[in-house]
Amino acid sequence: GWKDAISTTIINFNNEKMQITWAARELFPSENMSFSYTFDESKHKVWKSCPTYLLDQDYNSGCLFETEGPTLAISIRNSNGSEELFSKRLKSDFYIKPNRPENVTFFWKEDTVTVSCNKPERAVKCLRLELQYKNKFDKDWQSRTSKCCSVGEQGFDPRKCYSFRVRLKRLVPYCNVVNYSSDWEAETFWMNGTLLGNSC
């Protein structure tokens, strides 16, 4: 029914914090919604009310709460809680947005670079390390993706300066149902295997 038609955006930040948002202004223009959730899988679930609401022009438009397990049920009700307007059950680990790669290192050998990062504590098989690079004459980034936690590329011209950036991606559809990547790690600039300052 229409209960499922409400579009929500679900992000599980590194399997630590959930953020669920909805289009408050379009869906419920004149009323504040109340949000509750549970990770409880038993028959008599204990529901929790939202600890931290996100606001859009003074209306509740989302909720932030700790990730407590793999199975999540959510419920959006009218302001006094008497009527349920939306409910959904989901696997919270299908919505993971990974943290940025940590301790990124570049290893150069002639025209070849190998970029690696620390191994995250869990679900490494669900992650890919993506490397993007371009020189100042390139309009678009070139991309190379490999198993976490190392990616390589070759054929760099020693006379050109290149900018590099890396991020971690979750595998779809085996691990995530949505295509979430980490934020990009800060760009770095290299020429002939040497790290340059803050631009090419």
What do you see in this structure?
This protein has one helix and 17 strands. It is an all-beta fold and 200 residues long. The protein has two domains: 2-96, Immunoglobulins (Immunoglobulin-like); 98-195, Immunoglobulin-like, CATH 2.60.40. The strands form four sheets. It has a five-stranded mixed sheet with strand order 5-6-2-1-9. It has a five-stranded antiparallel sheet with strand order 13-12-15-16-17, with no helix packed on it. It has a four-stranded antiparallel sheet with strand order 4-3-7-8, with no helix packed on it. Strand 1 and strand 2 form a beta hairpin. The chain is elongated. The termini are far apart. It is a single-pass type I membrane protein. Belongs to the type I cytokine receptor family. Type 5 subfamily. This is Cytokine receptor-like factor 2. InterPro entries: CRLF2-like_D1, CRLF2-like_D2, FN3_sf, Ig-like_fold, IL-12.
Structural class: mainly beta
**In oligomeric terms, what are we looking at?**
single chain
Spatial extent as radius of gyration? 22 Å
Sequence of strands across the biggest β-sheet: 5-6-2-1-9
Report the strand count: 17
Question: Roughly what percent helix?
Answer: under 10%
Strand content: over 45%
- The average pLDDT value, as a whole number, equals 92
CATH superfamily of the largest domain: Immunoglobulins
**Helical stretch count?**
1
Tell me, what is the CATH class of the largest domain? Mainly Beta
Q: Any idea how many domains?
A: 2
Largest sheet: 5 strands, mixed
Overall morphology: elongated
- Give me the strand/helix succession: EEHEEEEEEEEEEEEEEE
Q: Kindly, what is the distance between the CA atoms of the first and last residues, rounded to a whole number of angstroms? A: 55 Å
CATH topology of the largest domain: Immunoglobulin-like
The low-confidence runs, each spanning 5 or more residues with pLDDT under 50, are: none
Domain Cytokine receptor-like factor 2-like D2: 98-193
Subcellular location: Membrane
Protein name: Cytokine receptor-like factor 2
Domain Cytokine receptor-like factor 2-like D1: 12-65
